[in-house]
Amino acid sequence: MSEMYIVLAGCAQQGAGSPLAASLDGASLSDTAVEAGPATSSVVTFTTASGALSATVVATGGSGSYTYSWSVLAKTLDDSDTGNRFSINSTGTTTNATYNTLTIDGARPASAGPPFVGEFLIRCAVNDGSSTVNVDFPFTIIGESF
After folding, report:
1. What is the rounded distance in angstroms from the CA atom of residue 130 to the CA atom of residue 102?
2. Which residues contact 96 (CB under 8 A, 6 or more apart)?
3. CA–CA separation, 146 and 133 (whole Å)
4. How many helices and strands (H and E) does the chain possess?
5. pTM of the model
6. SS3 of 58, please?
7. Which of 33, 41, 71, 72 sits in a 20 to 30 Å window from 87, CA-based?
């Protein structure tokens, strides 16, 4: 008696890797810097310390080899007496997964009362060699006198 074998031929497509994605690491996010001090009868200017504002982006999927490019897209709010009290002092190092070297010039009011508030829209562009995804979020600076 001869045996018969069934031959199954074909190809199984291997699952493609997941697409590149990126998100903020909320546990490490420090998106607000407060500069406070006593009222002095004149506006007090300041520069935020390096590290006062900090964010880390976590990339997943894609090729697994990531580059990071941080930028300040715009000043979206300057709620101060002149409307022009907040500006970028230094963008710092912009090529790591963690961005914590941005420094911002700001001011606090001459007397106690509502604080001056500045807000900047930040972007981290993550690239894996074939795709880019952007993560946008605000950094807020508050200057207050008491």
Report:
1. 28
2. 68
3. 42
4. 0, 10
5. 0.86
6. strand
7. 41
E strand or H helix at 124, and its extent?
strand 116-127
State the DSSP code for 28.
Answer: G
Q: Any bridge partners for residue 78, and if so which?
A: 118
What pLDDT is stored for residue 14 in this prediction?
A: 44
- The SS3 call for residue 103 is strand
Q: Which phi and psi angles does 26 have, rounded to 5°?
A: -60, -30
Q: Is 26 helix (H, G, I), strand (E, B) or coil?
A: helix
Residues 6+ apart with CB under 8 A from 4: none
Which residue segments constitute the domains of the chain, with CATH numbers given? 21-145 (2.60.40)
pLDDT of residue 13: 41
Q: Do the strands 132-145 and 32-37 form a parallel or antiparallel pair, or are they unpaired?
A: parallel
Query: What CA–CA distance (Å, rounded) separates 119 from 114?
Result: 16
99 three-class SS: strand
Residue 65 DSSP class: -
pLDDT digits (tens, 9 = 90+) for 37-49: 999 999 999 999 9
